[in-house]
User: What shape does this take?
Amino acid sequence: MTGRIAFGELLIPVLMVGGTAAYWIDAGGLSLEAKAFPLALTAVIAVSLAFVLVRLLRGRRSEEDGRAEGADAEGAHWPLRAALVLGPVLAVLLWGFLGATLALTAYAAATLFILGERKPLRLFLLPAGLCIALVYLFRSVLYLRLPEGLLGGFGLG
Amino acid sequence: MEFFSHLQSGLDGVLAVEPILLMVFGSVLGIIVGAIPGLSSGMAVAVLLPLTFPMAPLNGMIFLISIYVSVTYGGAITAILLNTPGAPENSVTALDGYPMSRQGRAGEAIGVAIMSSAVGGLLSYIVMLVVIGSVAAVALKFGAAEIFLIAIAGVAVLGAIGSGSPAKIAASGAFGLLIGTIGVVPTGEWRATFDNPFLAEGLPIIPVLIGIFVVSELLLLVGRDYVVDADVTVQRSLGSIFSGFRQALARPVTVLRSALLGMGIGLVPAAGATLAAFASYSLTRRLSRRPESFGTGNPEGIVACESANNACSGGALMTTLVLGVPGSVTTAILLGALTIQGLQPGPQLIYEQAPLVYGLIVAAIVSQVIMVSLAVGAGYGLSGALAVPTRILIPCLMLFAILGAFGSRNADFDVFLMLGFGAFGYLLKRDGYSPAAVVMGVILAPIADNELIRMFQLYGSDWYLAFIQRPIAAGILSLLVLVLLHGMWRRRRTTKLPAIE
Assistant: This one.
């Protein structure tokens, strides 16, 4: 009757349940009008996830439950993926101090390096050139105000 | 007479230097993006959407429309040359296109694809030009109940017609709808904002789109050296491409039928071009005198899917503009773009912003012509050098994503939100859930929620009777139930389609 469930397969249900619970922590005191639609949606989420869990427990998996191409190799690559997501977090936290161009250049260079680029010129020129070009593009086209940080005085921040 | 004056205003808005340059630029970008497997039209439009902020509304939409309609051209080229569709809607093109390429008929196949796409797209947008006013007149009769049902249909249809577990798609769609209700309610209450001012207006759509469409795809690419593992040089000539043009035009019935089918499917919220391509291919094969020849290099297979997938964009755009409900996931992003420009899609838009709406349709028609010439050049000049190293592609696109997410409100919060949805989107794809359903839910939730609250205010405790007593609402509800039941019945049989984008 029961099948083994990999931890990864429970991640999305846990996230959805957690997200829904967090939603209701803040929204629980609303009027009935404001709660009606979310309540109905919560019921749908609960029933759908119940179906998913029952299928998982019964060990029934079909092509329908299939995973994305390349997903199975993820075990070896989760640190890279984590770095790809956490890297920009760090860059954004630091760009108030370093300036957007420097922070993003450092992020891009670090990403190139961890993804396997080893040629020194490419590691420096590509991120620097790309960042400067993109920051200039977004500033001049979108009038985007990016943090200038240390290099603000040189117009490069 | 009103139609001609709207048409004239549309032409005036489009036939100027800046819009034409934007169409050319957008078409070039779209073909390039379409030709790179792993980069979908949704991704292209999501990444480039922030560039339209400072543009005039019509110019911004022209730019995005040009990208949207040209991606399938580029995707067909790689489907034919490399057996790797550049976009999901080109999956079927590879079934006959790649065998033709291997038979030394790559140029011919590319020509067939280009001309079929162009004719399908032209027909679709010309029909749209003529009927959109009438459709808007009907849509004006829609009340809260009708709009609520159509908004829900936009998510529910994904579950009925998409591949993947229905329970997972339902959970994804419902979760997307739930988080889409975050923000200030029409009753004045703050719902699930945690007193965060950045959430007062609800989840900002740009970071969500970029996260789910761009960042999650990049996370999937990690671990692969190249997006395309091939290095193929294929012989083709301009003469063979033009020969392909003639082959497509020699099959007018298939082109017309496929275009009409594509357009019809595009009108259904969330159906998308992939479904249109598959449905058209299946129908054409069934009606063919030589069905066994499909999949071995029959040009008619390419005609069927390319005509349909491009025609679908016209239907999807009409649904988006007239009903305010996305006809596909990519048009959901266009819907977001309209909202950012301060425009509210819906039947009123057709009357209040007629120059913009008709200008958009005219731009889509003109783009088809521009794209034929660009696509011929791309088809001729493109070699197997589409093997883009992911170690270069990933950081480049991440930089675009970061700046694009930050650029919408100059808020660090939006970058964090984008990254969060990127990680979430990756996990959804990995485990067979539907990121498209989440995105549709986030976009449609405010519409559905507002209309439901309006129903409470209009009908009181008998609000549910509106779904039965109003004929249009009852009709939509019946259709929705039929589609869902058909989807369940179909699953019990066989058909598997690739995931709807």
